[in-house]
Specification:
alpha/beta, D-Maltodextrin-Binding Protein, domain 2, 11-stranded mixed β-sheet, 15 helices, 11 strands, about 45% helix, globular
């Protein structure tokens, strides 16, 4: 009888044992992450966070402008919990419109001044996680083949030799390209900036959705020149692509890549756990360790990749994040770009 009883008990014990781990893991809950950096950086971040916390992450990758529009569309019934990465301007706009949640991480004292300032300007609704300068890269092999002089300035990109040779993102979907638009306005004045972009338009072969895509196009030779943040081009150079990265002679703008908690997030506690973890030196080292991130991290103790563009050696403008991250100014400039640039014939 004892043997028969054990035969009946053992399968039940085995079943209970098999259920123990999944039940324990699911007890940690889940997190819906909106990720705006490269897919190749999003995934190791997710894997490391899941391993550290036991929280299941559901990740979607899109450009900054796309996620800003999504947050607006989902405001009445938020699906996302946290928005990580991407240029700060759309994050600031989302903060201004009350689409994101104020939060002060216990790690604030560990951060660079520019990251804290981003948090202060947004009244605690977004924080800086990395910084990077705007610029462009060109394919050396293609440049030599086409016998075109090396470009060193923004003005060079409007020369006739570069007709249909330049790729850049659409500023409506790409935070990178909106930074470019706002940079030109601050660098040249609005009237001259739009005249410059009209001249540049003649040489653009494609307006992409993603801000990093032009760097990949220049790396493969699909396009001669790609206008992006310089760290996106560094990724291609480290991978062996024959690209040269240019800090334009006139000066250039920069981004503060940011992070925001979605207002009304269904997994608020887990969103705060990601927020605190993503500001740690360990999390901020993951991108460079996987050779997909060469920005300057916001945590003072995080290692700065050796290949990262040296911001102190680049002629940076005094970028007005408060003004150009405001909802009214961003919408005004994008509407003007749509009306005066995107409708021009090629």
């Amino acid at each position: 009888m004892r043997t028969a009883w054990l035969r009946r008990l053992l399968p039940a014990l085995a079943f209970a044992s098999s259920m123990a781990v999944p039940l324990s893991a699911s007890a940690q809950g889940e997190l819906v992450l909106y990720c705006t950096v490269q897919e190749e950086w999003c995934r190791p971040m997710v894997a490391a966070f899941e391993k550290t916390t036991g929280i299941k992450v559901l990740m979607t990758r899109k450009s900054s402008g796309e996620f800003y529009a999504q947050l607006k569309a989902e405001a009445a019934n938020p699906r996302g919990d946290i928005w990580w990465g991407g240029t700060g301007d759309p994050h600031l706009q989302a903060a201004e419109e009350g689409l994101t949640e104020p939060y002060k991480s216990p790690r604030m004292s560990e951060l660079q001044d520019w990251a804290v300032k981003q948090w202060e300007q947004s009244k605690g609704r977004t924080v800086g996680v990395y910084a990077g300068a705007l610029g462009y890269s060109y394919n050396r092999d293609q440049l030599k083949k086409k016998n075109i002089p090396e470009p060193k300035c923004w003005a060079d990109l409007t020369k006739p030799q570069f007709k249909d040779e330049i790729q850049v993102a659409n500023p409506n979907s790409s935070g990178t390209s909106y930074t470019m638009l706002a940079t030109f306005v601050q660098l040249m004045g609005e009237d001259k900036a739009f005249e410059f972009m009209k001249a540049l338009h003649k040489n653009v072969n494609q307006y992409t959705k993603s801000g990093a895509a032009p760097a990949r196009a220049a790396a493969t030779g699909e396009s001669l020149v790609g206008i992006t943040f310089q760290h996106d081009a560094v990724v291609q150079a480290v991978g062996g692509a024959p690209v040269t990265i240019v800090s334009p002679c006139e000066g250039t703008g920069y981004e503060i890549g940011s992070m925001s908690i979605v207002k009304g997030a269904k997994n608020m506690d887990n969103a705060k756990k990601w927020y605190d973890w993503a500001l740690s030196p360990e999390a901020q080292a993951i991108g460079a360790q996987n050779k997909v991130s060469y920005q300057v991290p916001s945590n003072k103790a995080a290692p700065v990749p050796a290949q990262a563009p040296k911001l102190t050696e680049i002629k940076l403008i005094n970028y007005d994040f408060a003004k150009y991250g405001s909802s009214a100014e961003r919408q005004r400039l994008l509407s003007k770009w749509d009306k005066e640039i995107s409708t021009l014939p090629k």
